[in-house]
UniProtKB/TrEMBL annotation:
Pfam family, one: Trans_reg_C
Top-level lineage group: Bacteria
Keywords associated with the record: DNA-binding, Phosphoprotein, Transcription, Transcription regulation, Two-component regulatory system
The species this protein was found in: Teichococcus oryzae
GO biological process: one example: regulation of DNA-templated transcription
Sites bearing 4-aspartylphosphate, chain numbering: D56
Gene Ontology MF terms in the entry: phosphorelay response regulator activity; transcription cis-regulatory region binding
Protein name per its UniProtKB record: Response regulator
InterPro entries: CheY-like_superfamily, OmpR/PhoB-type_DNA-bd, Sig_transdc_resp-reg_C-effctor, Sig_transdc_resp-reg_receiver, WalR-like, WH-like_DNA-bd_sf
Domain OmpR/PhoB-type residues, every copy: 134-231
DNA-binding region as annotated in the record: 134-231
GO cellular component, one term: cytosol
All residue ranges annotated as the Response regulatory domain in the record: 7-121
Length: 233
């Protein structure tokens, strides 16, 4: 977190919706900065730190999907919640594939938006009870610290998004156990996420922890059941 009040960046080309969200989220206890397009969002990200982005998909010029992909490529791991008027599964999957942490289809209840934001922020900074410490787990040349949500290697700390860290933490807590996609979605605080959404997030995580993501050694698929994390050298 960047401070006592989580700092949000709301990016939407619809001035009316942008202003409504800015006022509502401020009333919910968030610090809110607004931007009208991707260029303004990048300028804000260059000068300020944010805990989460609320990003519209359909914007003139650079779309929300393109901005998300570029931010992830540049190493930004700030959580991103996408707002989309396209509610079809393929459109939602595209958001996850580009690096989003969650999505919300328009029209939506602002109270649900606030709830999802709080869920993502909580997920992005996982905390274990003091009486349940979990030691770092080895994944080949990397070590993952579930308490810090950090993936370290010989070359330093590997960047993980909030969603990736939460996914790896959920698997590490039950290393060696097969978790269904439904169990994983519940652990991430997104029980409504479909199977393909979980598969996409697993694929993204494998690119960071596996020597060969096409032949995973640590995050394995168990056919017809789900996924299992098997730490090792």
């Amino acid at each position: 977190m960047t401070g006592a009040e989580p700092h949000l960046l709301v990016v939407d080309d619809d001035a009316r919706l942008r202003n409504l969200l800015q006022r509502f989220l401020a009333e919910q206890g968030f610090r809110v900065t607004a931007a009208q397009d991707a260029a303004a969002a990048r300028q804000a990200l260059h000068s300020m730190a944010f805990d989460l982005l609320v990003l519209d998909v359909m914007m003139p010029g650079e779309s929300g999907l393109e901005l998300t992909e570029r931010l992830r490529r540049d190493g930004h791991e700030v959580p991103i919640l996408m707002l989309t008027a396209a509610g079809a599964p393929d459109d939602r999957i595209a958001g996850f594939e580009h690096g989003a942490d969650d999505y919300l289809a328009k029209p939506f209840d602002p109270r649900e938006l606030a709830l999802r934001i709080r869920t993502i922020l909580k997920r992005a900074a996982p905390a274990l009870p003091a009486n349940l410490p979990l030691a770092p787990v080895q994944l080949g040349q990397h070590w993952f610290d579930p308490e810090r949500g950090e993936l370290r290697g010989h070359d330093g700390t590997q960047r993980l998004t909030g969603g990736e860290a939460a996914l790896l933490s959920a698997l590490a807590r039950r290393a060696g156990e097969v978790l269904t996609r439904e169990e994983i979605a519940a652990a991430l605080g997104t029980p409504e996420a479909g199977e393909r959404a979980i598969d996409v997030q697993v694929t993204r995580l494998r690119r960071k922890i596996e020597p060969d993501p096409r032949e995973p050694r640590f995050l394995q698929t168990v056919r017809h059941r789900g996924y299992v994390l098997r730490p090792g050298t």
